[in-house]
Here is the input.
Amino acid sequence: MHSPDAPRVAVVGAGLGGLVLARVLQLHGRPVTVFERDASAGARPQGGSLDIHGGTGQAALRAADLLDRFRALARSESQGWRLLDPATAAVLPVPGPPAHDDDSPEIDRGQLRGLLLESLAEGTVRWDHAVTGVMPLGDGTWRLLFDDGSTEEADLVVGADGAWSRVRPTLSDAMPSYNGVTFIEAGFDDCDTRHPALAGLVGEGTMLASTGSRALLAQRNSSGHIRVYIAFRAPQDWHVAADVALDDTAAVRAHLLRMLEGWDESLLGLVWRNDGGFVNRPVFVLPAPHTWEHVPGITLLGDAAHLMPPVGLGANLAMLDGADLAHALIAESTVDDAVRAYESVMLPRSAQAALDCASTLDDLIPPEGA
Here is the structure.
């Protein structure tokens, strides 16, 4: 029998939220294991730059005693925005700072994840452990099922496994659905040296040009890399109707250039001069609000709980979820009380955030006819 003061916590998914949860628990001497399907930390790219907000992501990093180390890595100069006119590339006035705060330094997602991983005790993350499902054992505890046929038991299972969570179906029938917006990703390496004109166009932070239901965003990452997103409203299978193979770089580029016809040539350089190919990223969301009836011994955080458009809140909320759940587990006398306390805060917070994100995306890329 396990001590109620040291419940077995199994976190499914080594993303930012799950790692914050593990870090805060370990700071308080609590056992935790993170199960991750990837074979290693570097098994796949971790995505672009994140702006970490003072009231959410930074609060979580403070709870994890990592705020100073984050500050040493973060790029405060990259939190600014440049708004450009699509037809002329003239700089337009930016309406104001983001609603969340004006202290949101940028950091590459991979750097932030690495910081969290390095802070954990050796062996906390079990790589190459793909969870295929979870099974209740009738006493409030759970059995995790792995794709190699092995199992583990836990007093609390936390689904931190993202949009296509294998844990979520135990709590909710909700599935992510396409919200009508697609982002096409491209990139430039060593931009200050190899593409100085484009680097100047983008500036030190994020550049945006938009008209109608189409937008072009470019985002500074570390080491001179610039990540570009061409965003538009279209059916999820837009490439089928356009007779474009997604792995045909020239065909995708030609389609995007037709879509942006009439835009300034300097902006179009972000489409026709990129390094490598293009990545199709349709935007999927969960219903808002996404809620579930409390079930003992299991809960969700981050995208598994509240998948929303990628407009700057998702990673911040995931980390805050992890810190809040850890604090509840430390403060409450039972796992069940802790999960109830956590869900009572997280669910309404994420419901409002999802509505805010949807509104922000509609402002950025208005629906046809809006």
